């Protein structure tokens, strides 16, 4: 029997870290037979951001993915990442939802549940651990490793002891940002090994360039399971290469016993597959020691890069990375892992894009500061708390203790279109997103986001097109800035632009199909014309006015209207929320800039909006 066991992460954390979680199930299944024959301790293939990405971007059923992988991997444990009381969403769910979700995961093929809490508040893990044990599956408690003035080795040893007392079968040290150093790893693993009897499972991203050295020190001090990723999606913001670690331990007392030639066959397959997703490649895939300061986890960096790109603000990445540790300190040093990584990261983006710290505060930051995610590890900045929530009460109990059972209500809300318990639970995670997904599935109109042809030349680089340029028509020059775009429909897509500073919405309808080719930066008309009568060509401008006075309410960044909280005639005070925008997967309340009476509402729920347009108009008192 091998002294050290390997869990490979290529089907989940590898592509989450490097291509924004975009790998499709159809590209996983052909190589599953080889993966299944390797002899891994487990394959991490579900959970984390994969559930969200399947529904939001890939337009495929995440439960269907799990079932297909279970069938294709009969001899290998399937492992998932579970956020405790947050499950796979971005809020705390009631206990009955947690139990139902865990049971459905187990019934559909999950063998190992890695369960963590972003705050390391173990009160948020008790119910999910109990549910896993009740299902007869492996419960792996995970310590979210971080560094701060309030995190030290005795603190982490105390967590390990609590996990063991809760009945966990294994213990993961989850170093999601690659912050461990070899010396600290040795000290930490040795201390935990002497305190608990559970096998220790090491997880560390390679972002800082230290993970392989940390793994060697870990196994020397008692760790028996390592998380690695096939080199096709390994290293950098991802993880130490599986092949490299297998080779490093071969012939030693820690020999994994895995076949290097077989692993290399798998590598060849994924290297070719990865080329299909070139448009989602993160610009931050190499070694970056700045992570030791900003602590941005590997699974977040490629998504953050992609989200800033969509906001037309990729040039602000360095400012955002500098702002993230400041926001984290303000919030009491939470470990940066979902959902706190998104909470801190999105607030940092807002602080940078608005040019004023906490001018706009997300709903999730407000909930965090009210204790609705659990106990903050350190002291929260009282000034920031006052700006965000004023004198609102801060809860001290387990957040889920304040939640009523939800499953009955959820069933009734989605019964008109849900076809299974899995559908109901998808709706529980992401209600608005799931309803649209299920409606489109029923209508047979689900379409994944487009994969651009490999090698297509997009003029200003291999990954993205220009978003700011001048257009000259009949001698008149117009300055165009693209602020964002909507999802493509059957034949058309909305682009949100400003023309000489005036916000416009352009609806662009496809007339011909074209083939994009690389090398010459051109396009060629395809044979399958979709030409229609010229009357059907639509380039419609938006009807919202450009912000021109203090009473015009605007958003800090492009997003989708989740809720409209006011109507004409309503009297509001400065600071009152008037609408809720979803941007970068986080909800952001937009407040009234002045006190007065609402006289115009230019938006409705579901609308796409940009910063250069007035959304609501308030007449001053």
Description:
The longest helix is centred in the middle third of the chain and has 15 residues, at 260-274. Mean pLDDT is 86; it is low at 458-465 and 512-541. This protein has an eight-stranded parallel barrel with strand order 1-2-3-4-5-6-7-8, surrounded by six helices. A four-stranded antiparallel sheet has the order 9-10-11-12, with no helix packed on it. Helix 19 packs across helix 20 (431-443). Helices cover 34% and strands 19% of the residues. It has 621 residues and is of the alpha/beta class. The chain contains 20 helices and 22 strands.
Strand order, main sheet: write it out: 1-2-3-4-5-6-7-8
Q: Average pLDDT, to the nearest integer?
A: 86
Number of helices: 20
In what range is the share of β-strand residues? 15-25%
Q: Which structural class should the secondary elements be placed in?
A: alpha/beta
**How much helical structure, as a percent, in the residues?**
25-40%
Contiguous uncertain segments of 5+ residues? 458-465, 512-541
Inertia-based shape? globular
Question: What Rg do the Cα atoms give?
Answer: 25 Å
The counted number of beta strands is: 22
The major pleated sheet works out as: 8 strands, parallel, barrel
Euclidean distance between termini CA atoms: 77 Å
Write the layout of secondary structure elements.
Layout: E1 5-8, H1 10-18, H2 32-38, E2 42-47, H3 50-58, H4 62-72, E3 78-82, H5 95-107, E4 112-115, H6 126-134, E5 138-144, H7 153-165, E6 170-175, H8 182-195, E7 200-204, H9 211-220, E8 225-228, H10 242-249, H11 260-274, H12 291-294, H13 298-310, H14 317-330, H15 340-354, H16 363-369, H17 382-389, H18 407-414, H19 421-429, H20 431-443, E9 468-473, E10 476-485, E11 492-499, E12 502-509, E13 514-517, E14 522-525, E15 552-553, E16 559-564, E17 571-572, E18 577-583, E19 586-591, E20 596-601, E21 608-609, E22 616-620
Parallel strand pairs: 1-2, 1-8, 2-3, 3-4, 4-5, 5-6, 6-7, 7-8
Antiparallel strand pairs: 9-10, 10-11, 11-12, 13-14, 15-22, 16-18, 16-21, 17-20, 18-19, 20-22
